[in-house]
């Protein structure tokens, strides 16, 4: 197959590559065993790639999509379960890794993470007004005041989660507060008194 | 034709412009002239992007925690309410029911008394109205009878002059003896000359009559 020259028209996009069907449809045995990469996940320092395990084609009405099951490695961590790609298979953001580069990519995974373990806290302090409100409410109802005004945090569950939620009395490595917090880029706050 | 002055002195301007911004309503599709317009992509510096990401993530975490807290509180409250209603407060509820029934009864009695009073008043009014109507009717009947009897009396009085078979001959004789002629002539001055045989005076005779 000759390489096509792509001429972009209209709005710009962050995506870079082809749709999954464009890759898989032109490979022998639908590319089972080959490795693909989503260019959006290349922003992380650790390697992220997917190995195709099973491919199912779609009816004519869904000609941009394909159903693919992959072994996913996200940020150097291999997920235990197979991942199905269907809803996102139309995105022109996939890249095929040539066979001679596959070994290099697999080798780049380290047994130990090179990023520090992040442990997320289970609780967060209440905002000041809420604290006062609850204090008054308890007074009105004649209940005892709470010792510490904290409430549980909830996190969205995702198989891609890198950070771990603290278990038991584990000390979290990050703290969430109800304020502005420590600015990520202090240069934006020049001349502004924080706190 | 409109005069030049009236155009100059008019109160409203001939052309009017709307001050509001001209905008496409939300539900209309993209304008034909804007189909191929490509909006410029906003450029955000790396520093700002990181900071905005951090702030937004913080905000979402905080809001999720608050939402969860209140959601759980609501569920807790609901469950306590339900458990309370199922066991202990049944007696309380019965007492409350009793109390409500009592209040309802007193209200009903009060309203019944008011209704009775109102009914009595209404009945009396109705009676009065009926009586007044009957009286009016009676009066009207009496008036009519009086009027009719008056008429009868008059006619009786007149009946003495009626022509009967007994005095028919006499009446005919009387009519023949006194013939009445209703014809008349009229002159230019509006004077009437009764009767068919009345002599009409000539002009000279009239003049002579006026001179004398």
Automatic annotation (TrEMBL), chain A:
UniProt keyword list: Ribonucleoprotein, Ribosomal protein
GO terms for CC? mitochondrion; ribosome
One GO MF term attached to the UniProt entry? structural constituent of ribosome
Q: Does the keyword Cell division apply?
A: no
Superkingdom of source: Eukaryota
- A Pfam short name: MRP-S34
Mind telling me which InterPro entries this protein's record contains? Ribosomal_mS34
Name of the molecule in the record: 28S ribosomal protein S34, mitochondrial
TrEMBL record, chain B:
User: What cellular component GO annotations does this protein have?
Assistant: mitochondrial small ribosomal subunit
Q: Which residues form a coiled coil?
A: 104-158
Q: What is its main location?
A: mitochondrion
Q: Where in the cell is it found?
A: Mitochondrion
> Pfam family example for this protein?
MRP-S26
Q: Which UniProt keywords apply?
A: Coiled coil, Mitochondrion, Ribonucleoprotein, Ribosomal protein, Transit peptide
Q: Which InterPro entries match?
A: Ribosomal_mS26
Q: Which family does the record assign?
A: Belongs to the mitochondrion-specific ribosomal protein mS26 family.
> PANTHER family of this UniProt entry?
28S RIBOSOMAL PROTEIN S26, MITOCHONDRIAL, SMALL RIBOSOMAL SUBUNIT PROTEIN MS26
What protein does this entry describe?
A: Small ribosomal subunit protein mS26
- This protein's species is Papilio xuthus (Asian swallowtail butterfly)
């Amino acid at each position: 197959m000759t390489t096509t020259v792509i001429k972009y028209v209209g709005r710009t996009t962050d995506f870079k590559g082809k749709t999954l069907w464009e890759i898989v449809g032109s490979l022998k045995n639908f590319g089972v065993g080959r490795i693909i990469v989503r260019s959006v996940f290349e922003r992380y320092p650790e390697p992220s790639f997917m190995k195709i395990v099973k491919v199912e084609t779609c009816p004519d009405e869904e000609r941009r999509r394909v159903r693919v099951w992959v072994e996913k490695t996200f940020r150097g961590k291999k997920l235990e379960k197979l991942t199905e790609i269907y809803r996102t298979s139309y995105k022109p953001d996939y890249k095929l890794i040539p066979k001679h580069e596959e070994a290099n990519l697999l080798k780049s995974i380290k047994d130990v993470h090179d990023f520090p373990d992040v442990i997320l806290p289970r609780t967060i302090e209440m905002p000041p007004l809420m604290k006062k409100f609850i204090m008054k409410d308890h007074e009105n109802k004649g209940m005892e005041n709470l010792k510490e005004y904290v409430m549980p945090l909830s996190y969205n569950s995702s198989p891609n989660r890198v950070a771990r939620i603290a278990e038991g009395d584990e000390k979290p490595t990050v703290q969430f507060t109800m304020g502005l917090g420590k600015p990520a880029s202090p240069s934006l706050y020049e001349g502004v008194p924080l706190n | 034709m409109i005069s030049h002055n009236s155009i100059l002195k008019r109160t409203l301007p001939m052309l009017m412009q709307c001050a509001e911004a001209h905008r496409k309503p939300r539900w209309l599709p993209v304008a034909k002239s804007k189909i191929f317009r490509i909006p410029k992509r906003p450029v955000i510096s790396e520093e700002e992007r990181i900071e905005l990401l951090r702030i937004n993530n913080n905000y979402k975490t905080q809001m999720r925690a608050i939402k969860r807290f209140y959601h759980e509180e609501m569920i807790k409250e609901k469950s306590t309410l339900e458990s309370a209603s199922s066991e202990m407060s049944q007696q309380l509820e019965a007492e409350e029911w009793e109390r409500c029934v009592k209040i309802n009864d007193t209200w009903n009695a009060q309203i019944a008394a008011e209704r009775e009073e109102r009914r009595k008043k209404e009945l009396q009014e109705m009676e009065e109205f009926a009586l007044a109507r009957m009286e009016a009717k009676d009066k009207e009947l009496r008036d009519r009878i009086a009027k009719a009897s008056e008429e009868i009396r008059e006619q009786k009085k007149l009946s003495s002059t009626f022509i009967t078979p007994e005095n028919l001959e006499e009446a005919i004789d009387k009519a023949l003896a006194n013939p009445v002629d209703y014809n008349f002539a009229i002159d230019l001055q509006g004077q009437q000359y009764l009767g068919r045989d009345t002599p009409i005076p000539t002009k000279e005779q009239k003049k002579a009559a006026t001179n004398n």
